[in-house]
Write a structure and sequence with these properties.
The chain has 286 residues and is an alpha/beta fold. It has a domain at 92-272: Sandwich (Protocatechuate 3,4-Dioxygenase, subunit A). The protein has six helices and twelve strands. Strand 7 and strand 8 (229-235) form a beta hairpin. The longest helix is centred in the first third of the chain and has 21 residues, at 22-42. It binds benzoic acid (BEZ) and fe (iii) ion.
């Protein structure tokens, strides 16, 4: 049988043509069409196909509730950021949409306005971040919006990766006041590498890519009647912005951190577009 002719792909497509859900049917058909096209062009050897399914087994073996190598793979190959951009980005938006990444944890504690997400014994320079959440269309302030923020410690680890940090350290949820404003104390962000001890690390080393993410702090801003903004704030002038391992850092996510005595100050406003409010799935459970 000549599997490279169109007839073979057509036969496989037909075998999956009874899927009832039209969206799922469309997705499966597209996957078959493009994977067959890819294989026809690539002509993998038997050994290469064996490597591929064993690579997937190794990704599965390292994946659990606290870690998802498949998500990380999607991140470093640019797919997660591409989906985020396709779904949310519009020309002229002052703040960019960022991938969620593997380190969002569900149910971060609500903290009072101006509270610190860093425990007192957490090393690092502090930054006071204030800002305003507002309606992108009419510029009106949005009261009661929820800002969920998280960041890595200066040792490069998120709290869930590091036994020495208190539970939910460097994570917190804040509510905006009647003027739509919020105030958070966090750490001046520092760069850290994506986990490289699994198959994704192998890919990055093979590609001679740096595993580093530029210094950043994550924000998810949500309010009823508005599309949820998932973003990250990067530091102006950070040289790593150019080669962010997950292709997220961009011009519309840069914060102008200003030194003020022994700490930094940042003002960062968050525009929300009217739409359906939904929260992204947290890769790390509560
Ligand atoms: C993060 O910023 O938390 C992150 C995103 C993607 C891959 C690794 C880390
Ligand atoms: Fe991060």
């Amino acid at each position: 049988m000549d599997t490279t002719d169109k007839g073979f792909t057509e036969k496989v497509l037909k075998a999956y043509s009874n899927i009832e859900d039209p969206r799922l049917k469309f997705i499966v058909a597209l996957l078959i069409k493009h994977l067959h096209g890819c294989v026809n062009e690539m002509k993998p050897t038997d050994e290469e196909w064996e490597f591929a399914w064993d690579y997937m087994r190794r990704m599965a073996a390292i994946t659990g509730l606290e870690r998802n190598e498949f998500l990380l793979f999607g991140d470093v190959i640019g797919v997660s950021q591409l989906i985020e951009t396709l779904n949310h980005e519009e020309p002229g938006q002052p703040v960019g949409y960022a991938l969620v990444g593997p380190f969002l944890r569900a149910n971060a504690p609500f903290r009072a306005r101006g509270a610190s997400i860093a425990s007192d014994d957490t090393a690092g320079v502090r930054v006071r971040i204030t800002g305003r959440v507002y309606d992108f269309q009419n510029k009106a302030p949005i009261k009661g919006a929820i800002l969920d923020t998280w960041q890595a410690a200066t040792n490069g680890f998120y709290e869930n990766q590091d036994e020495k940090q208190p539970d939910y350290n460097l994570r917190g949820r804040f509510k905006t006041d009647e003027n739509g404003t919020f105030e958070v104390i966090g750490l001046m962000p520092t760069a850290y590498p994506a986990p490289t001890d699994g198959p994704v690390g192998e890919l990055l080393r093979g590609a001679k890519r740096s595993p580093y993410r530029p210094a950043h702090i994550h924000f998810i801003v949500s309010a009823p009647g508005y599309e949820t903004l998932v973003t990250q704030i990067f530091v102006k002038g950070d040289k790593r912005i150019e080669d962010d391992v997950v292709f997220t850092a961009s011009e519309n996510m840069i914060g102008d951190f200003q030194k003020e005595g022994d700490h930094f100050r940042l003002t960062y406003d968050c525009p929300l577009k009217p739409g359906v409010s939904k929260m992204p799935k947290a890769p790390i459970p509560a």
